[in-house]
Amino acid sequence: MANSKFEYVRAFEQPDYLLPNTWVVVRVDGRAFTKMCAKYNFEKPNDRRALDLMNAAAKAVVTDLSDITIAYGVSDEYSFIIHKSSGLFERRASKLVSTIVSTFTANYVHLWPKYLPETPLSFPLPTFDGRAVCYPTVSNLRDYLSWRQADCHINNLYNTTFWALIQQGGLDNKEAEKALAGTLAADKNEILFSRFKINYNNEPEMFKKGSVVFRDYELVEPDSHTITETMDSLAEPIKQSKTQTENDKKRRAKACIVVDHLDIIKNDFWDRRPWLLSNKPGKIPKET
Amino acid sequence: MANSKFEYVRAFEQPDYLLPNTWVVVRVDGRAFTKMCAKYNFEKPNDRRALDLMNAAAKAVVTDLSDITIAYGVSDEYSFIIHKSSGLFERRASKLVSTIVSTFTANYVHLWPKYLPETPLSFPLPTFDGRAVCYPTVSNLRDYLSWRQADCHINNLYNTTFWALIQQGGLDNKEAEKALAGTLAADKNEILFSRFKINYNNEPEMFKKGSVVFRDYELVEPDSHTITETMDSLAEPIKQSKTQTENDKKRRAKACIVVDHLDIIKNDFWDRRPWLLSNKPGKIPKET
Amino acid sequence: MANSKFEYVRAFEQPDYLLPNTWVVVRVDGRAFTKMCAKYNFEKPNDRRALDLMNAAAKAVVTDLSDITIAYGVSDEYSFIIHKSSGLFERRASKLVSTIVSTFTANYVHLWPKYLPETPLSFPLPTFDGRAVCYPTVSNLRDYLSWRQADCHINNLYNTTFWALIQQGGLDNKEAEKALAGTLAADKNEILFSRFKINYNNEPEMFKKGSVVFRDYELVEPDSHTITETMDSLAEPIKQSKTQTENDKKRRAKACIVVDHLDIIKNDFWDRRPWLLSNKPGKIPKET
Amino acid sequence: MANSKFEYVRAFEQPDYLLPNTWVVVRVDGRAFTKMCAKYNFEKPNDRRALDLMNAAAKAVVTDLSDITIAYGVSDEYSFIIHKSSGLFERRASKLVSTIVSTFTANYVHLWPKYLPETPLSFPLPTFDGRAVCYPTVSNLRDYLSWRQADCHINNLYNTTFWALIQQGGLDNKEAEKALAGTLAADKNEILFSRFKINYNNEPEMFKKGSVVFRDYELVEPDSHTITETMDSLAEPIKQSKTQTENDKKRRAKACIVVDHLDIIKNDFWDRRPWLLSNKPGKIPKET
């Protein structure tokens, strides 16, 4: 059985290399998660166990693929940022997206019993889709992440008020929707506080800000030079020796991968963690 | 926190619609499976439990996504064929690939303890990547599948002989490689038979032919018209009423999804199962 | 001055191969032609000299690129069909589109003085843009061409009536538009005939049907087998000897390239010219 | 003749938007120009008339499309740079490439008799192909242009020496090739000077540096801030009022488009012409 007469079919595979020197965002989204939340009785408006599971799966992805410099998650979605200088999988879109989605899914399913021990999985299983988007500048990339975190805030304030009206206010879905139609952020804060004694500022950071996953090093005192405007040059790949590359790799491997709930819209987060954009590992903090 | 000033970043998402009216093959491949086989001590040259697990995961994918007309798997890879008339996910490549890879991975990880109960999973977990390729004609599509099945045969004959030389013949890897260098299929059959009393024809069909997954209906007696040449017209979508579409959907849902090990290179397989290419569900077989 | 440190920029070029085994349509469109028609005083509703010039430019393109099997033009647009088996320029979209657009433009500008001797060109010059679209089946391809020819008919009937109302009926643009709002084809025919004694059927074929450009061979008596349904298999590339390929090339070079105004929606046109879809040159007609 | 049943074919057109916020280079190349040079007896190693014609065609393109910020040409190729903030033709690759190629070709053919009055055009006419490439940063863009200009220098030094050996040294092609095999730049300079009394530095700038086309404004005294490192932020689009945009448009239209032969590899060229990267028109120079 010769294979040669069939092999021509390989010519139909079309290359899908992502543009070099751009930031690659791979966003992973839960498939039909509204249905899944209902099926597994996730708590409303936020199920801490489910979010912890998302974060654990994301951490496994970042651990596995060191070209990912930072990841940001909210609700049933997670965005993984691959550094602009990365040549991982030759920057093939389908390979990058499918590997990240598969690693995320594998860990989500495998870790499920640890985070939701009383809710066994059943068919159809939770799954995720994904897509890759390129951003040419640091400014575009940060705007992408700001977009997701602003979305998190807007949705969480809405959902917190919506479910307070239902769970504590006794309204049904329609009534709660109607009560919130046309309200501004201040109105929702007011409803929460005056009717339910909830100070939104005291809500858990994870719910208000979402989750950031990254390799952690010693924070840097931002000086006048590491300001946003120069960040693109900061992100330019620097030619370095093999020894230096090896050292970087080792330091990166030693770094602790943290899950935190911080403001990533403001400059401060980035100024104090220059390694996120430079891809140059920082100092491993001394044990305390 | 207004989101409007960040939303422009959506314009960077680039469309990736696959060409309409073409067969879409989504091939899923194990990531670093050589390493994984070693880690989990998979049997050589074929580990029946691991292949059964692959087949179970593939069956779950076909069950979940009814636009998949047939799937073919061998070793650590599986190809899923989406009918040319399908508009699933608007034919977006990343959505199709990531959903199939995620569903496959979720089921693979979830079903692992059932198929390999004595080999618990550990990090890093098994994962898969995927890609989509379009084929314009039935002839191209069948050549793709023939390519994979011919590959299965060639590799399995090689591996069966290679591991017989090692496991029963006492050779080491290098010696076995050398013994097989330049041999033809007939030579390998001869080695197997004369030295190890193995008749390759009696090897399990799953090892020799790989696995096919599809919805099963009553076999059709091929008449002179359903020959390969007319298959492209057979595959052309037929305009039909909503009732008819609904009926098709119901019949498809009722159909039994089978995993079998058949020759898919020859015409006979396709002639007797016209629904695979026409996407027109066949007759549900009477219970026996 | 070493070039090596800059050469990395080549890696930013992204491949744009069109899917193999599909029909490639390159459609060329006039840029800002409404303005150009006004500038050069083209006759309304059709300027025969301008259409002859379009046809001459298209004929030059078909002569130059023998992988083009047929071209169809109407108004300021021309569609060039590259046979599905063609590997011209490795099927790179930008190369195919730009070469065809450039050859079309060069001939259009160069031949202008021959077809419009009393209207010298001035800046900005007439230019064209282009795009490539792939069609997997003969049926899709013919539907594409039918779409363009049906469009030609619809527009020409409208324009003929519109300009009759203005040029002979004394209406202004607004009044003519209003008079035609909501009319069907029959209504327009009636207006033309009853008010202006114009029998639309007697209008020039070039205006009613557009123009087809192709290599001409002896017409074939269509038998019962060369019907639409089998056309896809007809179009499948046949393996042939080098001598045969050389002979084909010679016959193709000898063939007369004609510009005609025929119905390309009905089967008859295609049944009698099987070489258009098979890419197998026909018989050179005897001189008469 | 209803068109509705054919219109579905539009769905086969695939979008080809170029990534936003990246520099678009459209490079135009002569098709089979070696053959054309021979046919029209172009002078070797450089034909001034032919280069002047290339420059005139390029100037027409830059005049016509004000989103082009700079163009660079050498031999039978021309690169047109579209500013990263441009939304011309929705950034569709085929539209951008085909329009630029068509405008270039139209002007090249139309202006031919002016630049080569004694060499009338004949079929097949000179034509060009084109492709678009995106560059994310100013640094990448400048490296692209440096690559082309370094190539110009390397080729011109080689060709000048090669043709001196033939035209003045009496060698044939093979002998000249052999004489130059393995030589460095210094060797070629030496051959030119010692054997033919040619000081390469005195060769015409157009031959040594190629040609740059751009809108000219008053040169700027570069201060310490407009250095290469900050150029990316310089190129970031600035939000501005409609009046400002209108003013810019007018100033751009008033600007003189020049063809010059300058070093575009060094910083000086860019530092003194900040409008090239900022897309912010400079000061119109006072008439002198």
From TrEMBL, chains A, B, C, D:
Cofactor binding note of this UniProt entry: Binds 2 magnesium ions per subunit.
GO molecular function terms noted in the UniProt entry: GTP binding; magnesium ion binding; tRNA guanylyltransferase activity
Gene3D superfamilies: 3.30.70.3000
Cofactor or coenzyme needed: Mg(2+)
Keyword tags: GTP-binding, Magnesium, Metal-binding, Nucleotide-binding, Nucleotidyltransferase, Transferase, tRNA processing
Keyword Chloroplast (UniProt): no
Pfam family, one: Thg1
InterPro entries documented for this protein: Thg1_C_dom (IPR025845), tRNAHis_GuaTrfase_cat (IPR024956), tRNAHis_GuaTrfase_Thg1 (IPR007537), tRNAHis_GuaTrfase_Thg1_sf (IPR038469)
GO biological process: tRNA modification
Domain tRNAHis guanylyltransferase catalytic, residue spans: 6-136
Chain's role: Adds a GMP to the 5'-end of tRNA(His) after transcription and RNase P cleavage.
Name of the protein in its database record: tRNA(His) guanylyltransferase
Source organism of the structure: Clonostachys rhizophaga
